[in-house]
Write a structure and sequence with these properties.
mainly alpha; 11 helices; 4-stranded mixed beta sheet; 4 strands; single chain
């Protein structure tokens, strides 16, 4: 009951945080716009800091409808096209049961067992070992796995990975992370726009007559402080957007691992899957936003401060401690399948020119067989007792 209650509260918390994040997105956008207005006023007006702050506030009120519209359009584009953008970055292609019956059947059985809507299933031709879930609603949800994962994990391990990603979908983690990425994208866009304008000569705001006070009240000497405050506000907004992304990632991975064990009843499969993925999950062409959605993200910041995932070691330790699994330690990947030997090759794949077992070619090695066929097709039937493989038959 405690685990179920904890999972339920996590899901409800995700829903509340999704709404709070969207509201926070608009706050950060307005903060960046205010910083831009303050920066423009500080660079183009000779006035006191108090006058520049009030003028920047007036500029914000004037520009806020445009900022709101741009943000709303950004959210709409992300809502409708986020999956298409992810597929384009990773080269993922949707597959059917006919193309990947093994993978499709495993996912379908998991969904049927718990009454979960079957998400779309996609494969990317990447030899890294990784998987991720994406989408904002049931019509968009999809699970993408790499070809490397399919090549090196057995069915139980693949089932554990799919259970992990299904748990992310069920818990609302996928929606949360996509929203966080949208926030970071919007803030990054406005921040870059602000600095480009600053280095290209300013907006021109403050040159016309929007002012909350008369020119005689301007004072002077506040331009330098205004510029410093503006740059600090932009840095704070950007840092908050990054912290939001990183703060969402760590706890959810532990819960997704536990959810996979709940679905599959096999903690050892989850542990061995993590051990095989460990250090082999780097998607070369993927953006940092995509890597944050993966089952493991090997990209880490300094001193692990900005790592988006807990370490594989800590996740395995949690599964051993709380799910009763057994840790085999770091695993080597199985070697690539070797070419089949001639004796294992199907008859239709053998070289028609190769000598048979009763060929007259004495240079080729022969298996242990009688010196000649026991019966020659089309010849006369043998008369009298014939010697067996151990000599002539014994006479009674």
């Amino acid at each position: 009951m405690a685990a179920a209650y904890g999972l339920y509260t996590h899901i409800q918390s995700n829903k509340r945080r999704s709404i709070a994040l969207l509201l926070g997105l608009f706050f950060l956008v307005y903060l960046v716009v205010f910083a831009g207005a303050l920066l423009a006023e500080g660079l183009t007006q000779e006035a006191s800091l108090d006058w520049l702050l009030r003028k920047a506030w007036v500029d914000l009120l004037w520009a806020s409808p445009i900022a709101t519209l741009v943000t709303a359009v950004w959210i709409a584009v992300a809502y409708f096209f986020n999956q298409s953008l992810i597929d384009a970055v990773t080269g993922s292609e949707e597959i059917t049961r006919k193309e990947q019956p093994r993978l499709y059947n495993i996912l379908e059985n998991l969904c049927i067992s718990r009454g979960i809507t079957l998400p779309r299933l996609k494969v990317t031709e990447d030899q890294a070992l990784n998987a991720f879930a994406s989408g904002l609603n049931e019509k968009q949800y999809s699970i993408t796995v790499t070809q490397g994962l399919l090549d090196h994990l057995n069915d139980k391990e693949i089932e554990a990975v799919l259970g992990h990603e299904l748990t992310h979908i069920r818990n609302g983690d996928v929606r949360m992370l996509v929203i966080a990425v949208i926030i970071a994208g919007v803030i990054g866009f406005f921040a870059e726009l602000l600095f480009r304008v600053m280095f290209q000569g300013g907006w021109g705001w403050g040159r016309g007559g929007r002012s909350s006070s008369s020119d005689s009240d301007r004072g002077k000497g506040g331009g330098g402080a205004a510029v410093v405050i503006a740059i600090a506000l932009v840095a704070v907004a950007w840092l908050l957007s990054v912290v939001i992304r990183f703060a969402l990632s760590r706890k959810r991975e532990y819960l997704a691992d536990a959810g996979s064990v709940e679905l599959t009843k096999d903690p050892d499969a989850m542990i061995s899957a993590l051990r095989k993925i460990e250090g082999r999950g780097e998607l070369q062409d993927a953006t940092s936003a995509v890597m944050e959605m993966c089952i493991d993200n090997p990209r880490e910041g300094f001193a692990d401060l900005f790592a988006t995932h807990p370490s594989i070691e800590s996740r395995v330790t949690a599964l051993v401690q709380f799910a009763g699994g057994h840790d085999p330690g770091p695993l080597e990947l199985p070697e690539e399948p070797q070419d089949e030997s001639p004796l294992q090759t199907a008859p239709e794949q053998q070289d028609p020119g190769a000598p048979g077992p009763w060929s007259s070619d004495t240079s080729a090695p022969k298996p242990f067989l009688p010196s000649e066929p026991p019966v020659t097709l089309g010849g006369p039937a043998p008369s009298g007792p014939q010697p067996g493989p151990w000599g002539p038959p014994r006479q009674n």
